[in-house]
Every structure is written in structure tokens, then in C-alpha cells.
Amino acid sequence: MGFTPEELQAGRGRHVPDVTAPGLRVLFCGINPSLMTAVTGHHFARPGNRFWPVLHAAGFTPRLLAPAEQGELPSFGVGITNVVARATARADELTAEEFREGGRLLAEKVARLRPRWLAVAGVTAYRTAFGDRHAAIGPQERTLGTTRIWALPNPSGLNARWTVAAMAEEYGRLRAAAFDEEAAPTG
């Protein structure tokens, strides 16, 4: 996926369509699209992003999917959206107001789609979007209607504190909760 800097910059500000369907067990929520995602139209498309390997290692998909195969996700009970729709080179280009507005819009989206879990990939993004300064990785007390929320580590390659194995373990905890009928809220 070799793009020139000019081609990547052309993705700045673009929006990437969500991957959703009715009846999702988990709606994964990224921070915002990268320029690579905006140019390709595929979520978590940046080569250093570990989302797809972690998703597979955690048991959400039967094989490692490429970003271009994102359309298969709803058949596994999962989808993808973002807190902020606007593509940027780095998440630190976003304002706190964009995160708060993104949280409001995300709550509306969740009310329409009613997934069992909203999984925000980035605890700092979750804290800012939902005004919960003390949130930690894991399930949250807050719900959006019947939808439970889980804050996950950001799979960006820039998040070196979390290894693929450690992220897969945390994402696997979510998978177990989301696909265990006893633990999943009804909706």
C-alpha cells in the first residue's frame, strides 16, 4: 500500500463509512480514521495498526482478515465505527470538543443499532468523549440504553505499552462477555 505523501494528505478530513448491521454483539469504535484509512476506505488500514491481528487472536474472526475484508465483520457479529468521523494524520489533531460531540453522536448511533457492547479502542478517547476522567481499560459502569461499554487498548502501533498478546487477552475478555448469552444484555 504505497501512497505518496500528497495522496495521503488528500484523505485529510474525509469520512469513512461505518461497518454495521442490526444485531451486532460488538460495535468496535476507533478514535478517528487515519489518512491511510481515509484513502483506502478501510478501517484500521495503516500497516502498523494491530487491530486486525488482535481481533483474530482474540477469537472474533476465524482467520486474519485484511482491512479490505472489513465487510465480512457483521457475519461474525461485529462492526466498526469511530468516535470522530474526520480523518487526520494523528489523533492529537482532534479537539476535546470534537471528542465530546463524537460521544454524543455515538450515543445516538448506538441507540439506533443497539449492539450488545460498544468497544472503544482507546481509553483516553472514551474518557474525553463521555466525560469519564477515571475510566480504565475494561467494562464500564455506564451504559447507552441496553448497550454495555468496554474500553480497550488502542491498537495503534504507537501504543507500544500494549503487546499484541496483551491486547488479544483484553479483547478476548470482551469476546467472552459479548458471546456469552448469560452475560449479554438483551435488547
The percentage of residues in β strands lies in: 5-15%
Mean pLDDT: 92
Shape: globular
Q: In the CATH hierarchy, what is the architecture at level 2?
A: 3-Layer(aba) Sandwich
- What is the CATH H-level superfamily? Uracil-DNA glycosylase-like domain
CATH class: Alpha Beta
Sheet bearing the most strands, described?
5 strands, mixed
**Radius of gyration from the CA trace?**
15 Å
Number of helices: 6
State the secondary-structure class.
alpha/beta
Do you know the CATH topology? Answer: Uracil-DNA Glycosylase, subunit E
Helix content: 25-40%
Give unreliable regions as ranges.
Answer: 183-187
Query: What is the count of β-strands?
Result: 5
Number of domains: 1
Walk me through what this model shows:
This protein has 187 residues and is α/β, with parallel strands linked by helices. It has a single domain (23-179), classed as Uracil-DNA Glycosylase, subunit E (3-Layer(aba) Sandwich), CATH 3.40.470.10. The protein is built from 6 helices and 5 strands. The chain has a 5-stranded mixed beta sheet. The radius of gyration is 15 Å and the shape is globular. It starts with a helix and ends in an 8-residue tail after the last helix.
Summarize, please.
Its EC number is 3.2.2.28. The chain is an alpha/beta fold and 187 residues long.
Features:
187 residues; 32% helix
SSE layout and pairing:
Layout: H1 5-9, E1 26-30, H2 35-40, H3 51-57, E2 78-82, H4 96-113, E3 117-121, H5 123-130, E4 138-144, E5 147-152, H6 164-179
Helix pairs in contact: 3-6, 4-5
